[in-house]
Structure formats: C-alpha cells, structure tokens
Write a structure and sequence with these properties.
With about 120 residues, the chain is of the alpha+beta class. It has a domain of about 80 residues. The chain has 3 helices and 7 strands. The strands form 2 sheets. Strands 3-7-6-5-4 form a 5-stranded antiparallel sheet. It has a two-stranded antiparallel sheet with strand order 1-2. The longest helix has 24 residues. The protein is rod-shaped. The structure holds zinc ion. The site of zinc ion has 8 residues, from loops.
C-alpha cells in the first residue's frame, strides 16, 4: 500500500501501486472533466446541430414542404452555417441536411423542408 494523491479531489489515500484515484466516483469525475474539456468544440457544435434539427422538425410539423422564408427558421434561432451534409436528389435538387431533416432553397430565399426516411 502506498500513500497517493487523488488527481480528482487532491486528497491523500492508501492504495495499490496501480490505483490512481481514491474512489470510482473520483475516477469518473476526472475522466468526465477531461472529456468535457477536450471535446468542448465538438459538444458546442453538436448542440448547435441538435438545435437546428429541432427547429427543422418543429417547423416541418407545421409547414410540411410548403415554401417558407428562410427568415422563419432564423427567427427560431436556426443557424444556416451548421449542417451535417448535402444531398443531391435525382431530381437535381440540392438539399442542405441536418441529420435526417433538410431543406432546399428556392427563389427569393424561400426554403422547403424535407424529412428523409433514411439518412443519405
Ligand atoms: Zn478523490
């Protein structure tokens, strides 16, 4: 048994040579913290994408694929810089996708929202 300092709570504890943390909860907390810090960019980006997806989903329930101004999305907080991929439909239409939801831009900054059955 060696005396060690827990890197999570900074308390001294006794433990086997390979024991690094004083408790399982300290170990988890330390790793969660590390994960949060190293992935903050990804977490922030994912949050924005999730928000965009929810906005598309909610507006799709109301408007289906009717043409609506892009400003309606933006008024709900939609940030058009963030999307997951582009989809070129066989019809030639190009959709900007946020997961399974997306939209195509038509004339005058009007958009039409679509929901794909499968992510393409
Ligand atoms: Zn600890």
């Amino acid at each position: 048994m060696n005396t060690k300092i827990c890197p999570s709570c900074s308390k001294e504890f006794q433990g086997r040579r390979n024991k690094k943390y004083c408790s399982v909860s300290c170990k988890n907390q330390y790793h969660n913290e590390e994960y949060r810090n190293s992935n903050q960019t990804v977490i922030t980006l994912n949050r924005t994408l999730q928000k965009n997806r929810v906005i598309l989903k909610d507006l799709f329930k109301v408007y289906r694929s009717s043409a609506i101004p892009l400003s309606v999305l933006e008024a709900h907080g939609f940030d058009k810089k963030f999307h997951t991929h582009l989809f070129n439909a066989p019809s030639g239409d190009r959709y900007t996708m946020v997961y399974e939801l997306g939209y195509k831009t038509s004339f005058d900054n009007q958009i039409q929202i679509v929901e794909m059955d499968e992510v393409v």
